[in-house]
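Incident log, structure service

09:12 report received: a user says their structure output differs between two submissions of the same chain.
09:20 pulled the input from the user's history:
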Amino acid sequence: MSNKTHWETIYSTKKPQEVSWTQEIPKTSLDFIHSFNLPKNAAIIDIGGGDSKLPDYLLSEGFTNITVLDISEKALERAKIRLGAKADKVKWVVSDILEFKPKEKYDLWHDRAAFHFLTTAEQIEEYLDIASNAINEGKYIITGTFSKEGPFKCSGLEIKQYDEKALTEILNHKFEKIKCITEDHTTPFNTIQNFLFCSFKRKAMVMASN
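09:34 re-ran on a clean worker, output below:
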């Protein structure tokens, strides 16, 4: 089964309260976003956003340039239905992140629980190439992954766990760490998943001299 088929099946057959990643309030993500003091017209993209309620909260706070990317068209359809008329204020992108070709630069790249599905060095390198080229210099990336204390799988798929040191080393070439925290996420069925959340700033690109 392809990744796309897997996720289309999940979002076609399971309700939000039947999947582990559902959050009523994406508090940690919002806390990180607020720490950057971004202008309301900042370009924000949510990677693997699915039917997350993050865009609902960003819209309610007055942000005007929001993009949500997910491999599952069904997931984005559910988000659009929930948002109603407000869905027209969001740009929706159906794509595997490794096939994403951004048409604009972003001030904030947010990824809660998509990055850890990349389990090979080649996948991780491709992701970071796409992200680093899409993020404006001096702007931000938030990455939320399962920690070393978290699950080994999600939705039946293998994931890659991280601690602060490992995640920092992977991103350090093009991003400067700002802050990392761990937190327990309580799933809709009252189990606990430990996450690592880190924020980074895009380093300035060094121009090669002649």
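09:41 both user submissions now match this output. Likely a transient worker issue. Closing.
09:42 reviewer note: The domain at 3-9+25-202 is CATH 3.40.50.150 (Rossmann fold). Strands lie at 44-47, 66-70, 90-94, 106-112, 135-146, 153-154, 157-158, 175-186, 192-202.
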